[in-house]
């Protein structure tokens, strides 16, 4: 996966934060909604000329059960963003994926993908 430049990353972050997403260490974008944690991921695949987006989710209660089983219940004190990529966490399930051709301005495409993923987030929330 080829990462885009700083302007691309800032466009993704700005659009996501405008929709209520939070940033975590390592550039993660996440949101806790009710009993679920969601992750938003947008990457520019320059070699393919496309910008890809993914929306993933998992129940907030899954990791604490796992931590209890493996004897690491102290991890329940970690902030929500830790559940995305911290040690001893379970993976999220992908609920939406999309790709758009990267136009002349990759920051515009990045913003469009974030808006598309936000719509998928709204639909997923409506389903649950």
TrEMBL record:
Name listed for the protein in its UniProt record: Uncharacterized protein
Highest taxon of source: Bacteria
Lineage, top ranks: Bacteria, Bacillati, Actinomycetota, Thermoleophilia, Solirubrobacterales
């Amino acid at each position: 996966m080829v990462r885009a430049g700083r302007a691309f990353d800032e466009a993704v972050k700005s659009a996501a934060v405008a929709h209520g997403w939070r940033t975590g260490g390592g550039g993660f974008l996440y949101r806790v909604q009710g009993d679920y944690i969601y992750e938003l991921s947008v990457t520019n695949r320059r070699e393919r000329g496309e910008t890809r987006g993914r929306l993933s989710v998992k129940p907030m209660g899954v990791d604490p059960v796992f931590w209890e089983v493996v004897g690491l219940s102290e991890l329940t004190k970690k902030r929500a963003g830790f559940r995305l990529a911290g040690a001893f966490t379970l993976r999220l399930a992908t609920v939406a994926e999309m790709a758009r051709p990267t136009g002349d301005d990759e920051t515009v495409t990045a913003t469009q993908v974030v808006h598309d993923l936000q719509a998928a987030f709204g639909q997923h929330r409506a389903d649950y």
